[in-house]
Amino acid sequence: NERFEYAAKATSDILWDWNLVTNEVYYSDNMKNLFGHKAGYIDDNLPFYFDNVHPDDRERVVLYPDQVKYGTMVNWTQEYRFRKADGEYAFVLDRGIVIRDEKGIGIRMIGAMQDITLIKQHELRVMQQNEQLKEIAMINAHEIRRPVASILGLVQLFNQSTIKNAADRELLDHLESATR
Hints:
Distance between the termini: 72 Å
Strand order of the largest sheet: 3-2-1-6-5-4
Structural class: alpha+beta
Largest sheet: 6 strands, antiparallel
Shape: rod-shaped
Mean pLDDT: 88
Low-confidence stretches: none
């Protein structure tokens, strides 16, 4: 217990311990510190958890006790949005491990929930910048195509047979090649 308490204080993660027999979950103090929710024990975790996972993420994220108890899952990892007490959503990376008895039935699941909101905000900003850069590149490509098309058109107007000088012919060939 002492080791667990020190580990919980040493990290900014929310450590959790889910009793699959009673459906009781213990959340470390960081549940209160980071998200404003009650820390400690929650007797019936499923409604609390279900209500706070973003509706668009629930189907893929919410674990039901029987699935975990009687399934074969050992490790679990998900990224999703979790509602804080103030109503805002945080992006979290949640990981857990199932502890099974000698018959293979899950009795506990222990894990850690990490707030990755800043990382997700940076990713979103980079994606937006990339979209802006793509748009600029497309505009510039369009602006460059017009004069290039004009040059190619002028090169084609020249009749290769009328150019007798080898140096002029070489220059024209080079101009066409470089423009293409």
